[in-house]
Amino acid sequence: MSRLILATTLCLLVSGCANIAYYAQAVEGQVQLLVVSRPISDVIADAATDPALRRKLETASAIREFASHELVLPNNESYRYYADLGRPYVVWNVFAAPEFSVEPQQWCLLFIDCFKYRGYYDKSAADLYADEVRQTGADVYVGGVPAYSTLGFFDDPVLNTFLRFGDQEVARIVFHELAHQVVYATGDSAFNESFATAVENEGMRRWLQKFATPERLRDFEMQQEHNARFHRLVADSREQLRAIYASSVTVDEKRRAKSEAIARLKRTYTNLKAGWGNTGAYDRWFSQPLNNASLGSIALYTQWVPAFNALLEQEGGNLPRFYLRVEALAILPKSERTMALERLLPNRTGSSASLP
User: Fold this and answer.
1) Beta strand pairing status for 81-83 and 158-159?
2) Which pLDDT belongs to residue 18?
3) Please, which residues bridge with residue 95 across strands?
4) pTM for the structure as a whole
């Protein structure tokens, strides 16, 4: 984010920069977040703090210590502060994709990086931009985000936006966002998010094994199975759509086939949910219009998770060695990195190739 502040300053000095307003809102949002942040130790010690909030922050502090001592994640000031933003999400991300493509649109920001989403601190601003993109004929999806990482440039705080969901969600997010500070590949959102998700999953297993009841651990493992089924379902639907878009049928036929594929996705989820006892974990996502952009938002976080899981297994669960292997992948040219990850993906027999 410090790079974002520099970029905004340079933009203001260079005529014709089309992103001035966007950079400005990003800087303002980050600054406001830092202004309202307080050390968690101070909030806990404050006699005026609500007892329920104090208990949640004490648990968050224990999770933070676990992240560094047990998962070898950065031992810095991130997640040692607390901020109540007075809203349900810290940012809202806009995802977009062409009408006949499953590949998400990418936005590149001066001196920062390229991302397959565009974040706004104000939902109305996100919706307004989404409407502008939608007018071009693209598929658009807007999703609320409870946390993000500044990659260590600032001390990312624990936020009310995810503290409200309970200690398991706090642990998941802290592990995920700290992982971004360990390894980050410029211009490769799928790599970065999949790596962080893999660390998050492994961290959750270890945390629950140490502190949770056997019943809670079983519930987590069952939810992981549900997650895997859901992600396979989305991935299969994207492949079906990819084949439709690559076909030589007319535009109207593509639109009809696209609609049928999305309807089939919804029906399959309904059947899955019935088998899960109608838990409805993904009902909120399915309640919004499904399109190339919304499917792409899911793939972004999961595309390479099986490859990273295979790499962690090759290292016998040793996280420091795993991080070094991932760092080696991150410095490769993107095309070589993609090929290396593809070799790590388990084949139909369940085995994967080993990288040197």
Assistant:
1) parallel
2) 55
3) 141
4) 0.88
Three-state SS at 356: coil
Long-range contacts of 16-24 (CB under 8 A, 24+ apart): 17/110, 19/109, 19/110, 22/109, 22/118, 23/109, 23/110
Q: Which amino acid is at 218?
A: R
Question: What residue type is assigned to position 205 of the chain?
Answer: R
Domain boundaries of the chain, sorted by first residue: 2-178, 215-344
336 in the Ramachandran plot: left (φ > 0), alpha (ψ -120 to 50) or beta?
alpha
Mean pLDDT of each 10-residue bin along the chain, 356 residues long: 47 52 88 95 97 98 98 98 97 97 88 84 96 97 94 94 95 97 93 96 96 91 91 95 97 98 96 82 90 92 93 97 98 97 76 51
DSSP letter string, 313-325: HHTTT-HHHHHHH
Rounded to whole angstroms, how far apart are CA atoms 356 and 274? 44
